[in-house]
Amino acid sequence: MSIEDRIEATAKNIEGKAQEFAGEVTGDPKDKAEGRAKQSEAALRHSVEDVKDDAKRVIDQA
């Protein structure tokens, strides 16, 4: 697991939430959609890191 990767994913999630909120405030559906996409990307990155962590635990136990 890379803490840097987790930090980047969290930052991307926050950025996506802010962009989605801005889209809601301004009524811009493009901003809302892009914000949601960034949040989805962040969730995927977190999932990848979870898989890496699980694999490392399995290898370390062997």
Report on this structure:
The chain has two helices and no strands. The chain has 62 residues and is mostly helical. It has one domain (3-61). The longest helix is centred in the C-terminal third of the chain and has 33 residues, at 29-61. The radius of gyration is 15 Å and the shape is rod-shaped.
Query: What is the number of helices?
Result: 2
Distance between the termini: 18 Å
| CA-based gyration radius | 15 Å
Shape: rod-shaped
Order of helices and strands: HH
Mean pLDDT: 95
Class computed from helices, strands and strand pairing:
mainly alpha
Residues in β-strands, percent: under 5%
Largest sheet features: none
Number of domains: 1
Residue windows where pLDDT falls under 50 for at least 5 positions: none
Helix content: over 70%
How many runs of DSSP E, i.e. beta strands?
A: 0
